[in-house]
Amino acid sequence: MTKLGRLLFVFLLLLCTTQLFADKKKVVEPTLEGEAKVQFDYAFMEGVRCKVLGDLKSAIAYFDQCMKIYNKSAAVRYELSSILVLGEDYTLPLQLMREAVELEPTNIWYNLLLANILQRKSMIEEACKVYDKLILLHPEREDFYIVETDLYSSVEKWDKAINVLDRYEKQFGISEPAIIEKAKLYSKMDDVKNASAEIMKLVKKYPEKTDYLGLLAELYLSHDQEKKGLQLLNKIVKNDPDNGFVRLYLADYYRTKNDTLNTEKYIRSALLNDKVENGLKVQYLLKLLVNQNDANISLDHIYSYVQVLLEKYPEDIAVRTLNADFLKRYNRLEECKGELEFLISKEKNNYLIWEELLMLYNQLEDTTAMYRGGLECLKYFPNEPLPYVMISLPLLIRKDLERAKGYLEQGLDLSPDNSPIKAQFFAYLGEVYYKQDGVEQAFAMFDSTLLINPGDIMTLNNYSYYLSLRNEHLDKAEKMISTALSADPNNSTFLDTYAWVLFKSKNYSLAKFYMRSAIENEKNPSGVLYEHYGDILFMNGEKEEAVKMWQKALEFRDEECGDLKYKIENGLSVDHEK
């Protein structure tokens, strides 16, 4: 109810401006005649036009002109105030609206703006008095009661909020939201007698709805009247054995009492009851998961309940979705993939499942599934950028550069500005351009990536490495790879890049240290790593060891290696180039 009140309040303010603009013909002041009337009407309409167009400075100037022509206009005061209230000083807008309401006491829009300004100035009780007047003028307007209740509640004037709801009930009769709100307010005042009396109104009006008895029981339990509360809950369970909400509420109650036997009894009776909606069961288990520490329950214990549901409802989408979430938490990624693939086979139009599945393929480095899944996802969601990334990465790895570029450019156009995924598109496009010898375009893409995400360590590494290969901007290259390495100090790729930047900067001794670390941190060193190490050793004067490293690199037949046979026979020149 509180959120509804706030939404209505905002809605009323929007109506305020719209309605007055719609009724612009009514603002002509009856005391004006002749040229003064023409000038006033023109200035007022121009002020409204400028306000609608967003030219507030001009609008204020026109309304000031209106005030000079006729300073008793409530409409002009309203328009000026509705602009000035956008600032931080509400003193003048408040003065203007007090005057406007004094001039036209029954105008609903003037009163609403006055109440809004009073609220902004934290003059809540005075704002409520404005709503009192509005309710007297328009007793049929439910929203006025709701907003006033919300305002009194915001300053913990529970008794006054209840008084407003009493008037609401007198005008509109028994209403579930109003009665429940009154009960909550009485509960905050620790007035269990009146709170229970309110709920009993609903029990008597809707005797077939056991939910209200549940609310009454919850009230008693929250105010240390456990005997009454449990009697009601047990009565509900007896009369309504399929009421899952009450069974799960009882489970929570017994958990707080460390009564494991009854906790298990009520949870399992709810989970296994076919007449209790599976959605309620899943929501309850998610609640346990979110409040795991407070509920004093282990992840394994919660998952045992998920397995109970799985065994009984193996085809239920909500249950399988919950199971996928748990499998991911347990890092059982292959099993999680199976669940998500099952779910997507049933709900191909569910983008959230597609997103989870594609990201899981990426985590598993399953490029074939990424490619196929991305293409399938595009059939249903052609305007989502993620599938374009998932398709382009396998193409990039297979060096199908033109097709990769096509998907990347499409995805880039669909990505929100300055978003992480846009940065990813820039990074991958940079890789494509570099491999197609579009070096300037590639570096521009990398710069764009780092502008959005300065901590993108893969881009920092690759950009740094490419600069080192070209012997360009080595200071910039060293700063970038240092940033990447500080984020992941044992990454052999980053260590290799840092060593290579140092090598190109002729800092051979430090380069040797980092290259040795790169090889030591890599379980399966590549031919390129051994070649680089050989080059560095050679420039450190360790020529025999360098030859050994080049010979080892030769065994890998790595396409990225240089002319190793030449190096083995002739070594490196002083002016070496990679």
TrEMBL record:
PROSITE patterns the record matches: TPR (PS50005)
Taxonomic classification: Bacteria, Pseudomonadati, Bacteroidota, Bacteroidia, Bacteroidales
UniProt KW keywords: Repeat, Signal, TPR repeat
Name of this chain's protein: Tetratricopeptide repeat protein
Gene3D superfamilies named among the record's database cross-references: Tetratricopeptide repeat domain (1.25.40.10)
TPR repeat ranges per the UniProt record: 423-456, 527-560
Signal peptide as annotated in the record: 1-22
